[in-house]
């Protein structure tokens, strides 16, 4: 009985640690290159640096992702409520053309970047990406306020943004 109880406690502890909210990005994440709308490259570090002094709400998404599309009305509502925040979209689309078409189709307003190696590539691994849509909120100093939010966390995200602004 004790062994079973200890095993359960250990499993819960491991699960809790794996879902922990990180407070800063790794050096590896900062070095990752993403594609810009004009088909050039920039580093994740540059993206964060360009928004220093602003609260950043980041959505990791793809045009083929039905959960992403389903969550867009709530995300757009968040955008209209918190206009002083910056919005950054990072796409996991499979091609440059599909990514651009998705931005137009869903009328996404904000800064846009594309990860060329997909969800399971180097960038996805560096941010512990296991599901999309995924949201990350960054404070005005460039520190992570929310590391792992999903489409069901909009109420919590709203409270975090309000507190940071």
UniProtKB/TrEMBL annotation:
Q: Does the keyword Signal apply?
A: yes
Q: Which organism is it from?
A: Flavobacterium rivulicola
Where is the major localization of this protein?
other
- Gene3D superfamilies named among the record's database cross-references: Glutaredoxin
| Keyword field | Cytochrome c-type biogenesis, Disulfide bond, Redox-active center, Signal
* GO BP terms in the entry: cytochrome complex assembly
Where would I find the Thioredoxin domain in this sequence? 23-165
The cross-references to InterPro entries, in alphabetical order and at most eight, read: Redoxin, Thioredoxin-like_sf, Thioredoxin_domain, Thioredoxin_ResA/DsbE_sf
Q: Name one GO cellular component term.
A: cell envelope
Segment forming the signal sequence: 1-22
Judging by the UniProt lineage, the source's domain of life is Bacteria
**Name recorded for this polypeptide:** TlpA family protein disulfide reductase
Q: Where in the cell is it found?
A: Cell envelope
């Amino acid at each position: 009985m004790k062994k079973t109880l200890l095993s359960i406690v250990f499993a819960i502890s491991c699960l809790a640690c794996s879902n922990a909210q990180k407070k800063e990005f790794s050096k590896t994440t900062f070095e990752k290159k993403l594609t810009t709308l004009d088909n050039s490259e920039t580093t994740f570090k540059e993206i964060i640096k360009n928004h220093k002094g602003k609260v950043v709400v980041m959505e990791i998404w793809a045009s083929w992702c039905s959960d992403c599309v389903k969550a867009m009305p709530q995300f757009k509502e968040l955008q209209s409520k918190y206009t002083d925040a910056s919005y950054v979209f990072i796409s996991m689309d499979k091609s440059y053309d599909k990514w651009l078409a998705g931005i137009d189709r869903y009328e996404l307003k904000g800064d846009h970047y594309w990860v060329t190696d997909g969800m399971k590539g180097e960038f996805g691994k560096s941010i512990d990406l296991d599901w999309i849509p995924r949201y990350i909120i960054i404070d005005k100093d460039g520190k992570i306020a929310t590391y792992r939010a999903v489409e069901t966390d909009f109420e919590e995200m709203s409270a975090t943004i309000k507190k940071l602004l």
